[in-house]
Amino acid sequence: MSARWLLPWLELWACIGVGVGMGVAAEPPKPETQPPAKTLERQKLVLVPGKFGQALDAQVSPAVVQSSDRYRKPPLTVECWAKLDSKESFNILVASDPKNSLRHWEIYSYAQSGHFAAYLPGYQPSEIVSQVDICDQRWHYLAMTFDGQRVKLFVDGTQVKEQLVTPIAEKNPKSRPVDGPLTIGMVVVDGKTMIGCRGRIDEVRISSGIREIHAVPTAELPLDPPTIGLWRFDASEIPTADPAWTPRPAEGKAASWERETDADWVDSRLQQMDTGPTFNATMDYPSWQGKARSYKATAIRLGDAAVMFDRNQLRYAAGWTGGFLQHSSRRFGLLNTPTPLGNVVFASASQAGWADPNGSW
């Protein structure tokens, strides 16, 4: 169905600047570590030689992954390989939710000392810092286990810190859970600023339960049943779907279709199709606060530019130039969550409200 009827209303809303969720960011924020331009484009990752295959160049293109409650709830085990270039500032390896959330956790290297550490603001003590420097331009296998009461840190298969923690009460409105994405190579501080990472990150794995960490892996971390998230960074585009949600392929004597994997289900025909001037779907788009999502989006082609309209919240979600939509070829396009193909010039948050000219709600 044509969306021509919608265009006059979009033009009207653009003129009067009212509605639900019209929070438009006029320009990128000024963070502690300026977000690289890649965070404002379709999430194409910059890869470099890694521990196994390729690795994420975290300084150039930190990764943003769709959030999940499974990443927040202990017991958890978080593992990764990292090669860090500098201890001048903090290096964020893996973080869940923004830094001001009670359910936030992150693993990182401490500024100046380079010591491997974890931060859990919903617990006391909130900082768990080892005495092992990991910022020596060498690959290190790093892990944290957290069962809700005890945090353990590991460097190269050896336990380097153990700390009992207790949850803190929600004493003020600012101390509350704030859902946000899982980030690799950066952490969102207050929705406007971020702290990044100077180095390479490879083989990030999050598991439900407490794993036994007693040796340095000699191969890629396996995708086994306890795994709830695994990112190898051997492809330049991070999938929007959880890589661990699909049942594992059968082994041994089994029908051929039971042994199939994602590699057998790649089909690029949707990418090659002329989808016309409009497209309806659930869509992801980059914003200055990380990746955002519109669950009922209509993308409208406007010459060399395009806009995304959220039909559920009656707001502009994003506008961009340089192309229309990028579609996934995974699983015949059935897992397709289109993203803007071009440079995003404005984006609004998925919430009620609107922004002033400075981008403040």
Q: What does this entry look like structurally?
A:
Strands 1, 2, 4, 10, 11, 12, 17 and 18 form an 8-stranded antiparallel beta sheet that branches. It is globular and about 60 Å long. By secondary structure, the protein is mainly beta. The two termini are 35 Å apart. Mean pLDDT is 81; it is low at 1-42. A hairpin with a 2-residue loop joins strand 20 (290-302) and strand 21. 4% of the residues lie in helices and 37% in strands. The longest helix is centred in the first third of the chain and has 10 residues, at 7-16.
Element layout with pairings:
Layout: H1 7-16, E1 47-49, E2 54-57, E3 63-65, E4 76-84, E5 91-96, E6 105-109, E7 115-119, E8 123-124, E9 127-133, E10 139-146, E11 150-155, E12 158-164, E13 166-167, E14 182-184, E15 187-188, E16 194-195, E17 199-208, E18 227-231, H2 269-272, E19 278-287, E20 290-302, E21 305-310, E22 315-321, E23 325-326, E24 339-340, E25 343-347
Antiparallel strand pairs: 1-2, 2-17, 3-14, 4-10, 4-17, 5-6, 5-14, 6-7, 7-9, 8-13, 10-11, 11-12, 15-16, 17-18, 19-20, 20-21, 21-22, 22-25, 23-24
Name the poorly predicted regions. 1-42
Rough shape? globular
Mean pLDDT, to the nearest integer, reads 81
What is the end-to-end distance?
35 Å
The beta-strand count equals 25
**Helical residues, percent:** under 10%
How would you classify the helix and strand content by structural class?
Answer: mainly beta
Task: Please report the number of helical segments.
Answer: 2
Q: Mind telling me the C-alpha Rg?
A: 21 Å
Question: What characterizes the major β-sheet?
Answer: 8 strands, antiparallel
Strand share of the residues? Answer: 35-45%
Specify the oligomeric state: single chain
- Compressed to H and E, one letter per element, the order equals HEEEEEEEEEEEEEEEEEEHEEEEEEE
